[in-house]
Description:
- By secondary structure, the chain is an all-alpha fold.
- The protein has helices spanning about 40-60, 60-100, 120-130, 135-140, 140-150, 160-175, 180-185, 185-195, 210, 220-255, 260-280, 285-310, 310-330, 330-335, 340-345, 345-370, 375-380, 385-405, 410-415, 420-430, 435-465, 470-490, 495-515, 520-530, and strands at about 20, 30.
- The longest helix is centred in the first third of the chain and has 38 residues, at about 60-100.
Amino acid sequence: MPTPHARTAACADTPEEGEQAAPDGEEHPRPRLDRDRATDIPVLAVSGGLLIAFVLAALIAPTATGDAVNTVFTFVARWFGPLWQVLLLATFGVALWLGFSRYGRVRLGGAGARPEYGRFQWVAMIMSTLLAGGGVFFAAGEPVQHYVRTPPFYEGVKSGTQEAANAALSQSFAHWGFLAWAVLGTLASIVMIRGQERGMPLRPRTLLYPLLGERVRHSRLGAAVDIVCVIAVVAGTVGPIGFLGLQVSYGLSKVFGISGGYPVQLAVIVLLTVVAVASVASGIDKGIQFFSRANVWLAVALMAVFLVLGSAGFVLDSFLGGLGTYVRDFVPLALNRGDHQWLGSWTVFFFGWFLGYGPLMSIFVARISKGRTVRDLVVSTAIIPPLATMFWFTVFGGTGIFLEQRHPGTISGPLKSVGMDAAVISMAERLPMGAVVAVALLILTITFVVTTTDSMSYSISAAGTRTGEPARAVRAFWALLMGAAAAVLILVGDGGITALQSFIVVTAVPVGFIMLPTLWTAPRVAKEMAGEQGLLHPTGRGRGRLPTQDPKPTPEPAEPEPEPTRTPTP
Length: 570
């Protein structure tokens, strides 16, 4: 199977690994320079070293570290939050335009490229990678939280009503819906695949290739881009691993009476890390694909269980009502700047989190999406997954609201006293066969986070790889390092996880400026690919409609026959 970094042009005489092709006139190849080594050691060392430094700072001086990070977080949320809100909204708009315009038929990877994975496998890998970041952790707790405490945007909505439930779901959809998915898998992935066609590696620096060309390949700016993007996604992935330890520990204590202390949390993280290392070492075609399919089927089964054991009617009504409210308030919700403190804790936090994932997620999406059309990519990242996510949030969050309406305090009480990790387990306890449902939820949580950890370990390793597939040892290293970081931060206590949550948003500042140019470079490269694939108007101008049939050749005018030569008479 060709690697995603395969060269676009074949050479008759290919140098052996570890050598460079000889310049014209030289008989023997030169030894490969350090910058041509497969693994980029400086990027690996600096990004890994900064993560270790942050974890050590949180361990040695948790209060000082937390205070410093929270101070920067407050500044960032206030002054960069508006930029992120506009950026995510604009990304979704441009992606829709590309997907349903004349460029939607552009085939990523070239006219002759064909998909490597079936549609179900492809969408399952995309969905499992992002939804794992908080799909189970926030799905029940966030809608209930917004139901109990009405968001500022919906201030004035009467509590305890269906309108309040619709508003709670609408606010949750604004965080986990179309905008979040669009920034993760559309424009940046198009630019990334185009860069790969031109011989660039699947690394964050390739997002700047349309602007800087080949200069970005070996420049210090390119190295800096790779480092900040790796740090952002590592912070965003360590968080869900920590959330997993808290949620599974709480679930075990409620279901089986096992003490939910640090030893249990550590055991959960160690188990997850071991499974993630084995999965990412086996590659995309085995471990990552297996867990992605398992996640989807288990998630569908659990949703069916909740609909049957809970209230299917209330959930369906709430989904339609929440979706209608979300569509009605789509733009105002996305650009809301009312309560800055609330926005920093919710909307800006989520937007910064997803934005930080953007470059590395685009690497993963680009790696598995060659052969798909632009329209395929947009529909399967920015439309289908958000709708599925919103229904997922309604099934769990709607069931939580349903139980809260009938038994006030049953969900909101644990949510307030313990946190988000208590909401879904408290909800499962109220359903028939609650213990079985709770165990299934815990298993799903583990498999979801395993998928995020292994796929992001792959993408992080690719970001530090100059040529070829990322080394297996490097992939395993990142999975181990993220698991170890989560274990240490949980040991610190709530301050460690809180500091990490704030740090996620801080790291999104430079990433936002890296993602910003995709708003105009993605349409530009899509136009280039459309021209190469013969999808534009033959003249390149005019109305630009796609030709429905081969244009008839214009007949060339016949050359005039030469006049006969007359012989003059004497």
